[in-house]
Amino acid sequence: MIPSRWLSALALLVLGGCTTHINAPAEPVEPKHTGFEERLNIRYSPDDWPQPLYADLYVAERESPGPAVLVVHGGGWQGRSRADMTDTARELARHGFTAMNIDYRFAPEHQYPAQLRDLQQALDWLRQYHEELSVDPQRIAGFGYSSGAHLASLLATVNSSDHPDRAPWNPDQQGLVAVVAGGLPADLRNFDSGRLLKQFLGDTREAMPERYERASPAAWVTEDTPPHFLFHGTWDDLVPVSQSKEFQQRLEAAGVDNQLMLLHGHGHVTTFLLRGGVMDEALAFLEAHTR
Fold first, then answer.
1. First to last CA, the chain
2. DSSP secondary structure letters along 47-64
3. Tens-digit pLDDT profile for residues 94-104
4. What is the DSSP string of 224-254?
């Protein structure tokens, strides 16, 4: 007789191998393989920034300027580190994308829009040093998971709409050209005001409805929103899968190119840890949108 724990593990593996891929391309683009150089602990924040912020750079080897990806870790806007995204950044670099894996300020000491300002600064820094890094400043994408996905998507939607937090960042500066977002909390207005959101935004949804709207990428989707590749576990009990589904529908209604991969039987953590197949599709998506 097979032990029940083995059956449970087998069921998880079977379910984990099942995905639903909405808007999958008929012929996905195959990214190129390349070498890369690591440049670690590079400060990207100015001297007068409220907190020193650092990044790890994974610079793709190439003969002419190419695409880059801003990589943003999760952690509920209040913890974890860029080390969580090291493997992702290296995988991007192996496929020809210079990856900038960044720090950002944490709540509750620093509340929104501090984290958005940090990403805007990181993007400006990447553009400032684009020649040294052999990066095409018009071909920068974003990649994040969980709260990192939220920040990457928010950065993209802020610059492609009339969002009030475009200023004082240069509103004429081109934003991200594409986003890969996993476990995305896209619409903060649809969450109960739990500890993480109150720390991040400063109070409850009822007390600060305008701030919850400002911090929700879903509230700012327009026809100019950059293409999004979304992936989400169907068993995610931290960020409901409805968040990505409804965001995908908003993108679709606005005519924005998008893909959504649903990982059946995956929760929030397992979606991040077991994302190997997702990476192949995400890399192809980025290749297609950063040519």
1. 55
2. TTSSS--EEEEEEE--SS
3. 999 999 999 99
4. TSPPEEEEEETT-SSS-THHHHHHHHHHHHH
Q: What are phi and psi of 9, to 5 degrees?
A: -65, -40
- Report angle CA 132, 172, 167 to the nearest 5 degrees: 105
**72 within 8 A of 152, measured Cβ to Cβ:** yes
Buried b / exposed e across 24-48, counting CB within 10 Å, b at 16+?
A: eeeeeeebeeeebeeeeeeebbeee
The predicted model scores a pTM of: 0.92
Task: Decide the pairing of beta strands 258-263 and 228-233.
Answer: parallel
Cα separation of 28 and 150, whole Å? 26
For the chain, where are the E strands, in sequence order? Answer: 19-22, 36-43, 54-60, 66-72, 98-102, 135-145, 179-182, 228-233, 258-263
pLDDT at 32 > cutoff 90: no
- Torsion sign (Cα): 164, 167, 172, 177: negative
Contact present, 184 and 241 (Cβ < 8 Å): no
Neighbours of 127 (CB within 10 A): 18
CA 230/CA 235 separation, integer angstroms: 15
Quick: pLDDT tens for 135-187: 999 999 999 999 999 999 999 999 989 999 987 766 567 789 999 999 999 99
Angle in degrees, 0-180, between the axes of helices 147-159 and 114-128, rounded to the nearest 10: 70
**Phi, psi dihedrals of residue 111, rounded to the nearest 5°:** -105, 165
How many residues are listed for the chain in this entry?
A: 291
